[in-house]
Amino acid sequence: MIGKLSGRIDHRAEDHILLDVRGVGYLVYCSDRTMAALPGVGEACALFTDLVVREDLMQLFGFPTLLEKEWHRLLTSISGIGAKASLAILGTLGPEGLGRAIALGDWNAVKAAKGVGPKTAQRVVMELKDKAPSVMAMGGTLMAAQGEEAAEVIDAGDAPVPKPAAPPQPAAGSATMAAQSEALSALTNLGYSPSEAARAVAEAAGEAPDAATPDLIRAALKLLAPKG
């Protein structure tokens, strides 16, 4: 399986690039968000990839981070969600926004993705509500380990190997994601279920996107405290 590609962009289209890797051109399909963050033609580029093989088709889909690739894997595990629908959702929300939407049960946010109807959006939220917290908790680790994935890597030869592109995120980047991951882990260690911990952390992070881990934990605990 092709897990990562590094090379130079030969051509850019609306939804894919042609990536030259040591003289071999790969068509890699990306979300709108990723396409907007990629460099221009002739420049170096690296993407984590997922290869979809069907009887009459082979397609590569590219992601700027391991975390986004993991979200793609979860989304496409849902019946009726194909690779293109997954890219539409990730392109609209980004990995952090998707995690927050699922934790809060906000299927309307998922529905904002092009081609995703209300029933599909509700299915995404319902089917991933118990799986999403583990990916959210992995977020900081995956961001730190980016580039060390133990998948097959096809090198670009003499071309400098760039860091994967980082598309705009709804929050402040890997440090913010790490804080949310640490807060989520702390709450589950305190005995809260992954789903209720994720919901509280997502709500707290929505109110204070740049909050540090201790502040997120305190805010989430207040949200989880019995009312009345």
UniProtKB/TrEMBL annotation:
* Domain DNA helicase Holliday junction RuvA type intervals: 1-62
The answer to whether the entry has keyword DNA-binding is yes
Domain Holliday junction DNA helicase RuvA C-terminal, by residue range, is 179-225
Q: Which GO terms describe its biological process?
A: DNA recombination; DNA repair
GO molecular function terms listed in the Swiss-Prot or TrEMBL record: ATP binding; four-way junction DNA binding; four-way junction helicase activity
Quote the biased-composition stretches of kind Pro residues, using this chain's numbering: 161-170
The annotated region (Domain III) lies at 175-228
Major localisation? cytoplasm
Keyword vocabulary terms for this entry = Cytoplasm, DNA damage, DNA recombination, DNA repair, DNA-binding
Show the segment(s) annotated as Domain I.
1-64
Please give the GO cellular component terms listed in this UniProt entry: cytoplasm; Holliday junction helicase complex; Holliday junction resolvase complex
Which compartments does it reside in? Answer: Cytoplasm
Q: Which residues lie within the region annotated Disordered?
A: 158-178
Q: How does it assemble?
A: Homotetramer. Forms an RuvA(8)-RuvB(12)-Holliday junction (HJ) complex. HJ DNA is sandwiched between 2 RuvA tetramers; dsDNA enters through RuvA and exits via RuvB. An RuvB hexamer assembles on each DNA strand where it exits the tetramer. Each RuvB hexamer is contacted by two RuvA subunits (via domain III) on 2 adjacent RuvB subunits; this complex drives branch migration. In the full resolvosome a probable DNA-RuvA(4)-RuvB(12)-RuvC(2) complex forms which resolves the HJ.
This chain's function reads: The RuvA-RuvB-RuvC complex processes Holliday junction (HJ) DNA during genetic recombination and DNA repair, while the RuvA-RuvB complex plays an important role in the rescue of blocked DNA replication forks via replication fork reversal (RFR). RuvA specifically binds to HJ cruciform DNA, conferring on it an open structure. The RuvB hexamer acts as an ATP-dependent pump, pulling dsDNA into and through the RuvAB complex. HJ branch migration allows RuvC to scan DNA until it finds its consensus sequence, where it cleaves and resolves the cruciform DNA.
Can you quote the domain comment? Answer: Has three domains with a flexible linker between the domains II and III and assumes an 'L' shape. Domain III is highly mobile and contacts RuvB.
Its family remark reads:
Belongs to the RuvA family.
Q: Write down what this protein is called.
A: Holliday junction branch migration complex subunit RuvA
